[in-house]
Amino acid sequence: AQSVAQPEDQVNVAEGNPLTVKCTYSVSGNPYLFWYVQYPNRGLQFLLKYITGDNLVKGSYGFEAEFNKSQTSFHLKKPSALVSDSALYFCALSFHGSGNTGKLIFGQGTTLQVKP
Amino acid sequence: DGGITQSPKYLFRKEGQNVTLSCEQNLNHDAMYWYRQDPGQGLRLIYYSQIVNDFQKGDIAEGYSVSREKKESFPLTVTSAQKNPTAFYLCASSIVAETYNEQFFGPGTRLTVL
User: Fold this and answer.
1) Which residues does B83 contact at the CB level (< 8 Å), separation at least 6?
2) CA A63 to CA A80: how far, in whole Å?
3) Cα gap B58→B45, rounded to integer Å
4) What is the phi/psi pair of residue A84, to 5°?
5) Which site from A25, B4, B34, B89 is most exposed, i.e. has the minimal number of CB atoms within 10 Å?
6) Could you tell me if B96 lies within 8 Å of chain A, comparing CB atoms?
């Protein structure tokens, strides 16, 4: 069965330090992977996606993610964290296969806390 | 100003009542989706629609109903059959219902059962 796991409920990092939010997935076939961010009581905002090609994907607000097929991971990264990056982050999976029509499978979310 | 709007922002329901959540988009997107968000559980798909006058059940459709009479609108009704409706509800759309297209989300409606 297809699934997404975000192994950390919360990640704490100091402002200016690099951050990583982890995501692993399970799918039969080729995955399409997404990262979204959610601020309190708001909808989700799209950050970036991997479809094919270069394993390093660059997105909004200085975020990037690295697709690793052998480790089935798609970790979100940023070289220098800002306090304003503090939010809830979701990894999501879609895949090419019969019966799938744009549905996304979400991880449970990781709260990022950036301290000044 | 393009985007997805949801109303109301907050909604309170009494036991036994049906309530309808509004979702409108002016992005000219074909596909629309409804998700439910509960703390620590991520988002779960309730219903989705790939085209006008057509929709499919998602993973947790019981106790919910939808309609898609217009491309721009995809209202969700939470019926009295939904035993635990208190949650944050998010509507989304994508240009077409393809697996590689990102979805755009509305601001959400928080439903509370009194």
Assistant:
1) B63
2) 10
3) 5
4) -70, -10
5) A25
6) yes
Average pLDDT over residues B65-81: 96
Q: What pLDDT score was predicted for residue A78?
A: 98
Averaged pLDDT for residues B34-48: 92
Residues of B (23-52) whose Cβ lies below 8 Å from A? 31, 33, 40-45, 48, 50
| CA-closest candidate to residue B102, choices A93, A75, A5, A97 | A93
Q: What is the DSSP letter of B70?
A: B
Q: How far apart are alpha carbons B98 and B23 in whole angstroms?
A: 21
- Maximal CA-CA distance, chain B: 40
**Residue A75 forms beta bridges with which residues?**
A66
Taking CB atoms and an 8 Å cutoff, what residues of chain A touch B96?
102
d(CA B72, CA B11): 22
Residue B98 has pLDDT above 80, yes or no: no
d(CA A23, CA A21): 7
Angle at alpha carbon of residue B93, lines to A95 and A66, rounded to 5°: 45
